[in-house]
Specification:
The chain has 141 residues and is α/β, with parallel strands linked by helices. It has four helices and four strands. One of its GO terms (biological process) is response to arsenic-containing substance. This is Arsenate reductase.
């Protein structure tokens, strides 16, 4: 009998929580098949998820239209095993005992779909690596 506390939890943080972190959360949710608890947040959340990020994810069969940018809270960081930052630098609170990774990714904000696709694909590759490190077998998407 497993409870949600048995699941590894990952928090993705970028400044606006509108592009990179939303795509990463979408991939991790889909590829983990529910085996990982997924959160995303921003240090200065935008009003909406980047429509081009939504379009890029839809191309690979992942729907993130319903997502909303969320403000980064100390509680979200404390509740997560792995914290992945994407260009928010010092805005992310640090807690001992957490695993932190900083993924240097181009910001898709203001870019067209042609520029966002390679960012999306790089995020997918990193998510697949992260799943392996967490001991979770990716599901087919």
């Amino acid at each position: 009998m497993s409870t949600t506390t048995d699941k590894p939890s990952v928090l993705f943080v970028c400044v606006h929580n509108a592009g990179r972190s939303q795509m990463a959360a979408g991939f991790l949710t889909a590829l983990s098949g529910g085996a990982v608890e997924v959160r995303s947040a921003g240090s200065a959340p935008a009003d909406q998820v980047n429509p081009v990020a939504v379009e890029a994810m839809a191309e690979v069969g992942i729907d993130i239209r319903a997502e909303q940018p969320k403000v980064l809270t100390t509680e979200a960081v404390q509740a997560s095993d792995v914290v992945v930052t994407m260009g928010c630098g010092d805005a992310c609170p640090f807690f001992p005992g957490k695993r932190y990774e900083d993924w240097v990714l181009e910001d898709p904000a203001g870019q067209g779909i042609e520029s966002v696709r390679p960012i999306r694909d790089e995020i997918r590759g990193r998510i697949e690596t992260l799943l392996g490190e967490l001991g979770v077998t990716p599901v087919a998407v």
